[in-house]
Automatic annotation (TrEMBL):
Keyword annotations: Cell membrane, Membrane, Transmembrane, Transmembrane helix, Transport
Locations listed in the record: Cell membrane
Protein name (Swiss-Prot/TrEMBL): Multidrug ABC transporter substrate-binding protein
Membrane topology classification: Multi-pass membrane protein
Pfam families: FtsX (PF02687), MacB_PCD (PF12704)
Similarity comment text for this entry: Belongs to the ABC-4 integral membrane protein family. LolC/E subfamily.
Length: 421
């Protein structure tokens, strides 16, 4: 009598039986419903993870680009009056890795028209320095920055212009308490300026609160004719700030000290990172619950197919073959669900702004209002490593979820299964 030989692993008949179990008949409809919910759960879990992480990445990157596009990576302060700013800026520009150093005057003012008023931050810059800030010069909506140094005019953010109801050519009044000293104390200074340019960088807080003035005019207005507030230093790469900050201090001399973007925005970016990590863990539970549904569905399928398993065993199927059949059945749900979730997530991320506009139109509401979320558009930036992590995690959970039910099926005793048949 010849010795029975087992089929090779994952033979065609194993795939045939496993896929047949996925197409449950009417009396097994409940098991089919559980498998369907498991598939939907994994699909939605993977898609949600990909979409949310992409949106949070995009949100962080947009804020990072806009905040650092308007503010220097390193801010140089003087221990005294900053009168030698041109010499210090020249020495700092010679440091390898420094893109440019901008002399800057900052001051809080009240900007007003005959109809309304609001607070604003004045930033006094030279024309060439303002044009080097691409976040501004590439986003001029009305007017021009040409000849900015030659005329006492202002460049306003679009939201500020809308709030004040002004356009290019209109005049606005700005008031500061840092005026001339009199016998009765310091008198506020009020002066009218024409609007020469309107910009829109897409970050609502900046578009609503910042205006630019020629550096010489700002020095006259704030009564600091020979000095500036700070030097803003822009680097070729903001990630090199830790390495270049000591070199900048050395080049600038003993009368300066510096702060960088990590110190000024540490709380903000740390909060974003913590929120992102917590959101990943919370949403990963969706995939975990879907994987648990695969376990419960397979255990019910094993119980329901006890007679079939016994017949397969008596016909020569090995324990390994039975285990692989149920492994294929459960893993197919997880793998196909993961791939479907990946496709859905990518599709939504590529059309996230259109989807936001459609939902807003459908519900007659403004989703992600710029006043609350800083940005005028909803960004989505898919990170390859992060997306791969999500897909691999879902696949691993799906595969692990099938191991125990498949093992239970392989351990089923054919005699016990057929005893009462």
């Amino acid at each position: 009598m010849s010795k029975a030989t087992s089929t090779r692993p994952f033979a065609p008949f194993e795939w045939m039986v496993a896929l047949r179990y996925l197409r449950a008949r009417r009396k097994e409809g409940f098991i089919s419903v559980i498998a369907g919910f498991s598939f939907i759960g994994i699909t939605l879990g993977v898609a949600t993870l990909i979409i949310v992480m992409a949106v949070m990445n995009g949100f962080r990157q947009e804020l990072f680009d806009k905040m650092l596009g308007l503010n220097g990576h390193v801010v140089v302060h003087s221990l005294g009056s900053f009168t030698d700013y041109d010499d210090v800026a020249k020495r700092i520009r010679e440091v390898d890795g420094v893109k440019y150093a901008l002399p800057l005057i900052e001051g809080q003012v009240l900007i007003s028209t005959p109809y309304t008023s609001s607070g604003a931050l004045v930033r006094g810059l030279r024309e060439k320095d303002l044009k080097s800030l691409k976040a501004i010069s590439n986003n001029i909506r009305f007017g021009t920055l040409d000849g900015f140094d030659d005329q006492p005019g202002l460049a306003l953010g679009s939201r500020m212009a809308n709030d004040l109801n002004v356009k290019v050519g209109d005049e606005v009044s700005i008031l500061t308490p840092r005026g001339p000293s009199t016998a009765l104390g310091t008198a506020p200074r009020v002066k009218r300026y024409p609007v020469v340019a309107i910009f829109e960088i897409g970050m609502s807080e900046y578009d609503a609160s910042i205006l630019f003035m020629p550096l010489k005019e700002a020095q006259r207005y704030f009564s600091v004719p020979d000095s500036v507030t700070v030097l803003e230093v822009v680097l070729n790469s903001p990630d090199e700030v830790g390495e270049l900050a000591p070199k900048i201090i050395t080049a600038g001399g003993p009368t300066i000290y510096v702060s960088d973007w990590r110190q000024r925005n540490a709380t903000f970016f740390t909060a974003l990172q913590v929120e992102r990590n917590v959101m990943f863990l919370i949403l990963a539970l969706i995939v975990l619950v879907a994987a648990l549904n695969i376990i419960s569905g397979l255990i019910m399928l094993v119980k329901d197919k006890g007679r079939d398993i016994a017949i397969l065993r008596t016909m020569g199927a090995t324990r390994g073959a039975v285990m692989r059949i149920f492994f294929i059945t459960g893993a197919s749900i997880g793998i196909v669900g993961t791939l479907a979730g990946f496709g859905l997530g990518v599709l939504v991320c590529l059309n996230i702004e259109r989807l936001r506009e459609f939902i807003g139109w459908l519900t007659s509401t403004e989703l992600f209002a710029p006043e609350l979320y800083y940005l005028s558009q909803l960004p989505a930036d898919m990170d390859t490593g992060e997306t791969t992590t999500v897909v691999v995690m879902a696949l691993v959970l799906s595969v692990l979820a099938t191991v125990y039910p498949s093992w239970r099926a392989s351990r089923l005793d054919p005699v016990e299964a057929l005893r009462y048949e």
